[in-house]
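Service request form, structural biology core

Requester: graduate student, group of Dr. S.
Request type: structure prediction, single chain
Budget code: on file
Notes: please return the result as structure tokens.

Sequence provided:
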Amino acid sequence: MTRWTISVRILHWITVLVLLVQLVVVFGLQGPGIAMLIWMPWHISLGFSLLILLFLRLATRAVTSARNVGSGKVATAMQALLYLVLMAATLSGWFAFRSAALMPTPLVFGLFRLRPVRLPFDAPWTALHKAFVWLLIALVVAHAAAAAYHFLILKDRVLQRMMFAWKRDR
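Core staff response, request fulfilled:
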């Protein structure tokens, strides 16, 4: 069985983990005003991490033999759409960010300031960010459902290509 390269698999599962943590952080943002001060730096840090992971994943796919391992056109389109929507969600979040009046610009993981981006045109960035996030969630659920379908129904080992082997494949 041909697997994705180890670098692709590691970056995939780190991205999954960061997305799950980001989901927990977003629920923290739903509290009273002080919750925003506590959770927004984490939200920004994780969003920045997702953007970096995305570029690492694209670079890895470009320079390695990490092409679609036995994937069909639908899987290839889904992967491209996931990359595109993840980029749109993270960038629209960055474009939507504006510091509150008495709140300093949050530090990314306490290390450096990620300054708000001022674009030469105006757009409803917050609404776009929310829409892209919901679209990303829908795509991730569809992606996971397709993986489960391959594993449970088709039994074609597509899911195993992205997993880490505990023992040698036969």
